[in-house]
Amino acid sequence: PLCCIAAVIDGDISSVSLSDYKGRWLILFWYPKDFTFVCPTEIIAFSDRAEEFKDLNCDLIAASTDTEEVHLAWIKTPRNKGGLGHMKIPILADTKKACFLLYGVLKEDAGVALRGLFIINPKQNIEQITMNNMGIGRNVDEAKRLLQACQFVAEHGEVCPADWQPGGKSIKPSAEGSMDYFQEAGKDTSHEEDFGTALKPVKSRQEFEELIQGDKPVVLDFYAPWCALYHACFRVPVLSIFKCICEVLIKGCPGSMIIKSQRR
């Protein structure tokens, strides 16, 4: 939502339109009330690190439903007395609650905003939402990480897995491309016995004979979902293939037993 509302900017009362930030990344974060407890810790934390976000082509805006005059009084209050002190970011005063309701941050029983944080891309589309209850402050490092993840996906087209950090491994969003990530990530668990990863497709009779004559037990699972297509293309009955496998198995493993299972 694009809103034009009053704000305190650089110690003066002015106005801000979110459309002014088109072409840049934007983090808009709502907080419940001025002159409270968790709120100043968040706003100060974001303001003090505003330059880090500017280096990432991102602006920060804080917002609540308090008036711009109350914002200004809070800014002029020293930090050691619960105030904000000098602010490097605008603080919106959505007194009419027009923008507030559009972003869905209303805490109905209190009539104030939840701690909603929105990462908005240069096209003014919301990329990420974080919503905290009133008693839980947000983490600036995590907000920055999420911004960098959004920017990485937008720039490279690859996606970010859990716990992704800048410079970390990403995933190509395709069935084949994602295997590069999963194979690399699975190296640490290669020592574990995993029946699924131990399955070995057999592509020739020679390969089959080598397997059954080795020193490890072999479990043979014969299935042919492709049998109709195979028979149509090559005119080779699937049952004759299975018969050949059974003969090799019995020859190579004396004492083995072939059990026939019939499904109806």
TrEMBL record:
The Thioredoxin domain, residue ranges: 1-152
Enzyme Commission code(s) on record: 1.11.1.24
Keywords linked to the UniProt accession: Antioxidant, Disulfide bond, Oxidoreductase, Peroxidase, Redox-active center
Chemical reaction(s) catalysed: a hydroperoxide + [thioredoxin]-dithiol = an alcohol + [thioredoxin]-disulfide + H2O
Transmembrane segments: none
Domain of life: Eukaryota
GO cellular component: cytosol
Gene Ontology terms for molecular function: thioredoxin peroxidase activity
Enzyme class, UniProt record, top EC level: oxidoreductase
Alphabetized InterPro entries for the sequence: AhpC/TSA, Peroxiredoxin, Peroxiredoxin_C, Thioredoxin-like_sf, Thioredoxin_domain
GO biological process, one term: response to oxidative stress
Job description of the protein: Thiol-specific peroxidase that catalyzes the reduction of hydrogen peroxide and organic hydroperoxides to water and alcohols, respectively. Plays a role in cell protection against oxidative stress by detoxifying peroxides. May be an antioxidant enzyme particularly in the developing shoot and photosynthesizing leaf.
Family designation: Belongs to the peroxiredoxin family. AhpC/Prx1 subfamily.
Protein name per the record: thioredoxin-dependent peroxiredoxin
